[in-house]
């Protein structure tokens, strides 16, 4: 491990200025990903860690049907919020499925958005071929054993999975990310926050170096919307998703008048299933509709030998959550 300087920030503007001015500096919040990568795996070597946990970026407030969540709110605090549990219960379901209570008490919402991939090759510094760590070096996962990897948004350059559970319902809800930089603040929809790996898997999102997530805004769906999150995994706890799906449906007289669907465990980013939503909108809530939506969502996967099983599993995950949320029997 390379030595690094630890700095505690008391002011957001000063913290942003400090990290922006130093290419070797990174933010430290809950530390549940960052400290793993720095202290245990040794695959990230910042020269300076700027601790932002004392910044005033906490609190959950409701205004005009939008839930504002500070970037330093913990997963456990968000899971305990009454408005969220009542209006968008699938966010709470994803939070509880996403980590142990110990981790939920440390991990922040901003950090969850920025969590790094669990790709075992990325986290093993003895593996040389990793385009995400060393652009142009190749991808060990494409030719080696792969299972916890992506099939949507993936390519021969990188099949690393974005493993967040929380981000799956958040992207279904059109959540917006508020960001502070040296030149001011800006907002980016979560649907546009992540970047497909393409030929540069090391670039994962639209953040410029030094920009700080200050809060997220979650638009609440219309009353009567029902939602659910389904996560399939190799064991019931302490495990990442093989596939997952978050669905929010508003159904009137048997017709789906509003549908939001997103997938986890399959994408290089939290995956909004827009093609499936198009099929669901205005259609009758039936098993046939749900199967057509699942087919559309998995229309163009990129698989390797170890991940091919996810195509069918993801379809079944979608069909099952749509039955569950709609109340339509299989
Ligand atoms: Fe690296 Fe991505 Fe390949 Fe994993 S899948 S080895 S992160 S390039």
What are its keywords?
alpha+beta, binds iron/sulfur cluster, 330 residues, Enolase-like, domain 1, 12 helices
Percent helix:
25-40%
Rounded to the nearest angstrom, the radius of gyration is 20 Å
What's the mean pLDDT score? 96
Question: Any idea what the shape is?
Answer: globular
Termini gap = 53 Å
The CATH topology of the domain at 226-326 corresponds to: Enolase-like, domain 1
CATH superfamily of the domain at 226-326: CO dehydrogenase flavoprotein, C-terminal domain
Largest sheet: 5 strands, antiparallel
Strand arrangement in the largest pleated sheet: 4-5-8-6-7
CATH architecture of the domain at 226-326: 2-Layer Sandwich
Count of helical stretches:
12
Protein structure class: alpha+beta
Topology order in helix (H) and strand (E) letters? EHEHEEEHHHHHHHEEEEEEEHHH
Number of strands: 12
Structure explained in plain terms:
By secondary structure, this protein is an alpha+beta fold. The chain has a domain at 226-326: 2-Layer Sandwich (Enolase-like, domain 1), CATH 3.30.390.50. Helix content is 28%, strand content 21%. The chain contains 12 helices and 12 strands. It has helices spanning 12-20, 34-40, 75-79, 82-87, 89-98, 101-106, 109-113, 140-143, 167-172, 274-280, 287-297, 309-326, and strands at residues 5-8, 25-28, 48-51, 60-63, 66-70, 176-181, 184-189, 212-219, 226-232, 243-252, 255-264, 271-272. The strands form 3 sheets. It has a 5-stranded antiparallel β-sheet with strand order 4-5-8-6-7. Strands 9-10-11-12 form a 4-stranded antiparallel β-sheet. Helix 11 packs antiparallel against helix 12. The longest helix is centred in the C-terminal third of the chain and has 18 residues, at 309-326. The chain is globular and about 60 Å long. The protein starts with a strand and ends with a helix. The structure holds iron/sulfur cluster.
């Amino acid at each position: 491990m390379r030595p690094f300087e630890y700095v505690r920030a008391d002011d957001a503007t000063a913290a942003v200025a400090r990290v922006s001015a130093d290419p070797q500096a990174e933010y430290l919040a809950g530390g549940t990903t960052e400290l793993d990568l720095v202290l245990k795996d040794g695959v990230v070597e910042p020269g300076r860690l700027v601790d932002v946990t004392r910044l005033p970026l906490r609190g959950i407030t409701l205004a005009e049907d939008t839930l504002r969540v500070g970037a330093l709110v913990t997963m456990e605090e968000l899971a305990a919020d009454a408005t969220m549990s009542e209006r968008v219960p699938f966010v709470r379901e994803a939070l509880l499925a996403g980590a142990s209570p110990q981790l939920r008490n440390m991990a922040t919402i901003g950090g969850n958005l920025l969590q790094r991939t669990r790709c075992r090759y990325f986290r093993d510094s003895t593996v040389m071929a990793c385009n995400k760590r060393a652009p142009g070096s190749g991808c060990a996962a494409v030719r080696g054993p792969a299972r916890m990897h992506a099939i949507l948004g993936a390519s021969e350059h990188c099949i690393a999975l974005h493993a967040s559970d929380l981000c799956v319902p958040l992207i279904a809800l059109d959540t917006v990310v508020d960001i502070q930089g040296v030149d001011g603040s800006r907002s980016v929809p979560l649907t546009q926050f992540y970047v497909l790996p393409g030929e540069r898997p090391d670039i994962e999102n639209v953040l410029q170096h030094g920009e700080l997530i200050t809060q997220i805004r979650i638009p609440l769906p219309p009353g009567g919307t029902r939602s659910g999150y389904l996560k399939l995994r190799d064991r019931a706890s302490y495990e990442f998703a093989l596939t997952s799906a978050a669905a929010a449906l508003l159904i009137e007289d048997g017709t789906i008048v509003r549908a939001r669907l997103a997938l986890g465990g399959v994408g290089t980013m939290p995956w909004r299933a827009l093609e499936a939503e198009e099929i669901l909108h205005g259609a009758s809530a039936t098993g046939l509709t749900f199967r057509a939506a699942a087919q559309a969502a998995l229309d163009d996967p990129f698989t390797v030998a170890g991940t091919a099983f996810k195509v069918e599993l993801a379809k079944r995950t979608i069909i099952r959550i749509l039955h569950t949320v709609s109340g339509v029997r299989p």
